[in-house]
Amino acid sequence: MSKLIVKHYENLWKGHFKLDRAEAVQKYSDGNEKSVKREILRVNDSVAVLLFRHDNGNIILTSQWRAPVLARGDDNNPVIEVCAGNIDSSDYDPLRKNPLEAAYQAAYREAKEETGWHINQLYHLFALYSSPGITTEKIYYFIASVDKQDQKGGGLRQEGENIEILEMKLTLAFEWIKENKIVDLKTVFLLQYFGNNINLFM
Length: 202
Hints:
One of its GO terms (biological process) is ribose phosphate metabolic process. By secondary structure, the protein is of the alpha+beta class. 22% of the residues lie in helices and 41% in strands. The chain is built from four helices and ten strands; from the N terminus they run E-E-E-E-E-H-E-E-H-E-E-E-H-H. Strand 4 (46-53) and strand 5 (59-64) form a beta hairpin. It is globular, with a radius of gyration of 19 Å. The N and C termini lie far apart (47 Å).
């Protein structure tokens, strides 16, 4: 049976994220092995939350400029996304340290910070690796009904956020996917899931 065994981690860079290099041995089922090096982007787990209004079925999305998309030179900035953000240490109960409970707390917090909408019902779907060949990050996926917008939203200015809030019909969001206006993977995934299972939520 093949197996990857990590011998050593070396930190290469530390900023908003952390970049490590793993020195490892790839063992093959035929008994051979090969030394390999792999870069690992260590990122806090995060949440992605599709918000919808229970009264009219409209969905709430966000729009903001993303530096990596600018670095590619693509025309898809600002990026249209579901509400999303990292799970912070403050989201964890210090006694329980439960990752799913922390994800719920982060989902409520991010919805309020980014959109100003109050979550009425929050449904957890999955926790999936965002890109397991590159990063440690898992994304906790949620769908949430909202009932009122009790603050402005727009993100946290002290974190450099400047978020526009978009409200639209689900059919328009699907049109925007076809027109290449919505190109974020987690957003497309949640929109498709919601559309295919709308009777579970409405």
